[in-house]
Amino acid sequence: MSRMIFINLPVSDHARSRAFYEALGFTNNPAFSDDTTSCMVWSDAIFVMLLNHDRWKSFTSRPIPASTSSEVLLAINVDSREEVDRITTVVSEKGGTPDVNPVQDHGFMYSRPFADPDGHVWEPHWMDPAAMPAS
Q: In the prediction, which pLDDT does 133 show?
């Protein structure tokens, strides 16, 4: 069995969050979704579980961080600089906050961090594999 990662995020408006992630290119897996939770698929190995606050609280008694704090920075690789910019445009149109941290442009690597509608910080990034040092 291959290894997978499931990122669980508390969301204040489940439908809004699902629509936001679908607009970014995630797909919903209905087998693991209901009216409180959506399993959003990024790749064969990466899944984002969007859980409304009541559902989230059934897993932990720890408080949900304020939307202005950063519990993690989730970096995802995309195929091009243009894809980084396309995602940022969608973020702006769908209720997220683009460029919550400085844009990083090192020529061979490019990223633009954003916050989803609940303040979860993501960093789509592109790296030129030809610029990677040989090991």
A: 67
